[in-house]
Amino acid sequence: MFHFKTNLLRAEPALGKRRVRHLAGILTKIALSFLAVVLLLGVVSLPFFWAGRSLVNHVEAGRSDLLAAESYASQLMIGDALKRLELAETEFFAARRNLAQLRLLAFIPYAQKRIQAAESLFAGGLTAVSAVRDALQAIKEVLELTAEGEGLVDSVLKNVPTSEMPFSDLSAEKKRAVLAALARSAPRLSESVSRIAEALVALDEVPADVLDDDLLLAIDAAKIKLRSARSTLTTLAVIADHLPSFLGYPDQRNYLFFFENNTELRPTGGFLGVYGLVQVKDAEILSVKTDDIYALDGPSESAKRPAPPEPIAKYINVDSWYLRDANWSPDFPTSAAVMEQFYYEEAQFAGLDPQPIDGIIVITPQLAEDLLRLTGPVTVSDKTFTTDNLVDELEFAVEVSFREEGIPFFARKTIVSDLVNEVIHRLTAQPLSKLLATLQVLEKNLARSHILLWLKDPNLQSFVLQMDWGGQIKNVRGDYVTVIDANLASLKSDPAVERSINYSLMPTDHGFDASVAITYDHHGSFDWKTTRYRTYTRIYVPAGSELIGVEGAMFNDKLKDPARRPGAADVYSELGRTAFGAFISIEPGEKRTLTFRYRLASSVVQDIAAGEYELDFEKQPGTEAHSLTLQLNFGKNLTKAHPAEEPYEFGDSVYKYNTDLLVDREFMVGL
Q1: Residue 94: which of 39, 55, 37, 42 has the closest Cα?
Q2: What are the pLDDT digits (tens) for 614-645?
């Protein structure tokens, strides 16, 4: 599986065929621009006729080669694409020599600026062709190592959709060689990025006043594609620089990982029910071991432990803080540091010899469900798991049926280890085409925060945060909201509780009042996995915001407080934000709303006064597409907004928008 993370050229969607087409398609636009400028020059003197005619012929031939290169690249026939890029480069160099002959016409005012325009286009175009060619060559050298011999990369790639060669058939030496080649490619890819930047500068220097509208549009299109290529190659360069190290090249990596059960939602994604250790060397998983979190927490009960966060102590009635509750901070780097500390402390107390770890990885059941779509049903311990039944069947096995089957409590989660190892075996034994699909699943779950990473290597961690894979509370300018639930002793009730979030702003004499209302609609009933939903909910907002009040908060649940007295809100200052927190409990079949009202921070009020409002609304890891409604009254008419409102909402002072929190959302309003 890990090998195909290096196969960057074929990754979809962010690094897929569309990106390859961009790298080649850029060049077609540039070639058309060359040709248009040449025609603008005209034939002003018979002695220069043949130079002009030759220039046009070379540009036409180069354009044809670029079109062929684009076609080959779109089919992932990289070797053929490289050959045609080299031919195109040769033709353009020849055309440039012809252009040099035409410089004698520069004394003619009509020709001078047109020659300058052609020179700038050639400079930018040749630099772009060279940069793309070198980048493809670096990628080709990496991919070629997956073939059985030298020079076979094109035939391998061309037949990927039907290839049956499994990843597990690659030798350890071959995997190591691929990672080494990938690491070597990083500087070359970075150099290509720099040269594309140079090409953009050259194209910016083309004098626009001598060009017609069609040519200007062609140049603008070329710039757009070049910027896209620069972005893609920047990502490739960074991945090539960091991925080998993550996968255990040149040194082995040891990762602590946790299955976060988001049917029992916690701040970073879910309850830490199962932990494990994975050893990786040269993209080879050497071992995977998992165990029940209580195998560490249990022996630690007789040891002195830190006091837990107050809501845990109050609403779960515990006076010690254990690993299972370590992910209390919604900022994953903060929680991960606590998880690491508690792991070392509890492992030593349990008589284990914890080895130094290189990072922490957490995943939710959503990833497992998506992977089972690729592997098909998996049977372990006489139980068959599918995408549709995975969570319920696994939960029933470790919470209920283990007793009937005579399995000791401490061994009840052995089935998780068996399932993990079988899924890994199936994935690595699949053909190359299916492993590409595995990569897509990983990318999707990283983007939706169902996988979070915290790595000890500062360079790797910097990359993780840059890609927004690290679950860090964003440090962004402008308005900001995130809603964080913590299921406190509600069994596995979260799937039965539908949430909707409403965020509103209203102008007042002192600035703006804001309101975040979270509605919980409990569709479940009392059974072995579902009960009343008890959550301590926090919202994080811009620093300096002031609480006005809370509605819907409860002193405790209906069982512990039959009168259902109202509760108060807690106010925090942490993670560079102001946070408000409160407890609420929802009975099965009941709908209740928790609303925080506050004065918006002066920094955001100033942005609104300046006519520029930006809002980042972050999803909670482990959640899946809570509905989000915005109703933002700015007290003056909007001039623009992204994303745009429905047309019938235009023309007033209120920005109304309905969406979901499948991923983090960003909004911009001009006033």
Answers
A1: 55
A2: 999 999 999 999 999 999 999 999 999 999 99
| Domain hosting residue 564, numbered range | 479-670
CB 515 within 8 A of CB 641: no
CB of 289 closer than 8 Å to CB of 277: yes
Query: Among 112-126, 275-289, 565-579, which range has the highest average pLDDT?
Result: 565-579
* CA gyration radius, the chain: 30
Domain boundary among 190, 214, 244: 244
Task: Please give the model's pTM, rounded to 2 decimal places.
Answer: 0.81
Q: Is 158 exposed, middle or buried (0-12, 13-18, 19+ CB in 10 A)?
A: middle
Q: Which amino acid is at 484?
A: I
Torsion of CA 21, 23, 28, 29, to 10 degrees: 110
Domain end call among 220, 244, 268? 244
Interatomic CA distance for residues 611 and 605, integer angstroms: 10
Q: Do 449 and 491 share a domain, yes or no?
A: no
Mean pLDDT of 156-163: 38
What one-character DSSP code corresponds to residue 531?
Answer: -
Whether residue 527 lies inside any domain: the answer is yes
> Helix axis angle, 49-74 relative to 78-102, nearest 10°?
160
Q: In the prediction, which pLDDT does 602 show?
A: 97
Both 239 and 175 in one domain: the answer is yes
Residues 6+ apart with CB under 8 A from 403: none
Mean pLDDT of the 574-596 span: 98
Give percent of the chain with pLDDT exceeding 70.
83
pLDDT tens sequence across 474-492: 988 899 999 999 999 999 9
CA angle 412, 416, 417 (to 5 degrees): 105
**Domain CATH for 370:** 3.40.630
CB of 211 closer than 8 Å to CB of 120: no
518: CB partners within 8 A, 6+ apart: 483, 499, 500, 501, 537, 593, 594, 595
Question: How far is Cα 290 from Cα 294, in angstroms, rounded to an integer?
Answer: 12
